[in-house]
Design a protein that fits this description.
This protein has 80 residues and is an alpha+beta fold. Helix content is 22%, strand content 41%. The N and C termini lie far apart (29 Å).
Amino acid sequence: MAVKIRLQRYGSNKRPFYRVVASDSRRARDGKFLEIIGTYEPILGEVKISSDKAQKWLDNGAQPTETVKSLFKKYNVLNK
């Protein structure tokens, strides 16, 4: 099973809200997930990600998507 750390979209039209989740790569984008790692609100520019959970999944071989990787770098999630 290949695990990816990716965004799940929630919210209404033009008001997106995302969860950062660890999910099986074969599942749908908004489908079943393994664990919630954090949240991202692009309109407010607010990111709340548990660096412990993210590091745990990365150590276990999960691959972040390009968007999640850029969020980690921009908000220094793994450097805390």
